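Example record used in the benchmark description.
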Amino acid sequence: MLNRRAMLRVGGAGMLGMSMPKLIRAAEQTRQIKPKAKSVIFLFQWGGPSQLDTFDMKPNAPAAVRSPYRPIASSADGIEVCELLPNMAKQMHHVSLIRTMTHKMKNHASAGYYALSGHEPPSDDQRLRDSLDLFPAYGSVVDHLLPSDSGMPSFVSYPHVIRDGSIVPGQHASFLGKGHDPLLFLEDPNDKNFQLPELSLPDGLSIDRLHRRREMQQLVDRQMRLMEHSGEARGFDQYYERAISMLTSDNVRKAFDLSAEPTAVREAYGRTSYGQSCLLARRLVESGVKFVTVYFSNSIGGRRVGQGGWDTHGFDNTRMYKIVDKYQMPLTDQTLPTLIDDLHQRGLLDETLVVWMGEFGRTPEINKNVSRDHWPQCYTALLAGGGVKGGYVHGKSDERAKFPLEKAVKPEDLAATMYQLLGIDPNTEIYDRDNRPLIIGGRPLYDVIA
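Model output (structure tokens):
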């Protein structure tokens, strides 16, 4: 039987021309697909990479559109990638490209929230503020519906809190409560003394003393009824208990111990914050973490050289084609293919979904600063492992990678695909703080699923 929300969706889709038999078959298909992914590694490329300079090149487009970089063949028949990604080209037989991601949010904050939550923001506003009225992060939904039973946290994110002025929504549990927030840390995994203060006790504080403190706090909490009356505090008790559990867990400490990795492996990922973050992501899913979010940078980039994200408008002579080939692209070509290959060699790729994407793409037309501006109408997301097809392209963009021609995909559809691969029904409802039911995803991309 289809649930009530699924039936409402069926009715809406029917008005778009899909027949009831087709819709019922689609619903049955959802039920028949066996989950293949145990974990997701979500590599968020803050700032918005250019589709035309990475995975959807248009070498026959006019000079004002096409990339100055050449496309090169890859390990997947018929799929070309940028010449600055030669190592990634060797891994494309593991990859599904979605070349028709699309939405209408042109500002980083609103587009970032959309990408991190799979839910359209109330407005396209750079001043969009974090709020308990907005949707939670993917990992928080996973922790709520499919919590880890391995003793590991379900959701870990690092090594940044991203912002563009104010903090971007969609990075925590929001109305689901703090008990479903990620284990968030800002320490640099590339630091030679990297360790999490959350996994070590302060000097002079024993576990027994910590438990006694907790018992006293619980008494105060009950008297003040914080857990009943404060949306901000809801779930904090669960969060605290989880923190104590992690402090006493050898498995958790071992998972975060990057010093246990051979030097050759650490060098292969790259001795950078992002490179070691990707290596740590592999260690975490190997240890049972369900959802890992790695942020490429804490800033969009903008006018910075040699740091920051993918936002390269060309202001102050920071031209895209004098920057990305020295920082963003080499960093990507070292870490992303190494992660995919490492997971494959360890037998983990089939059960680990890797997602690489930004909040939007870049304009087809190269601007007067010899760079590209924001473009959400058509951009590319990369998926590998976790039950998706290898060497596959979903959808087709037009001759300038400006608009989708076939099989447009919205962020909520990508969210539904991730949930589906994890074994979570995308039609599942969660409830906001006003107890209103909200569906967690859109329509899964069945063509992408192997």
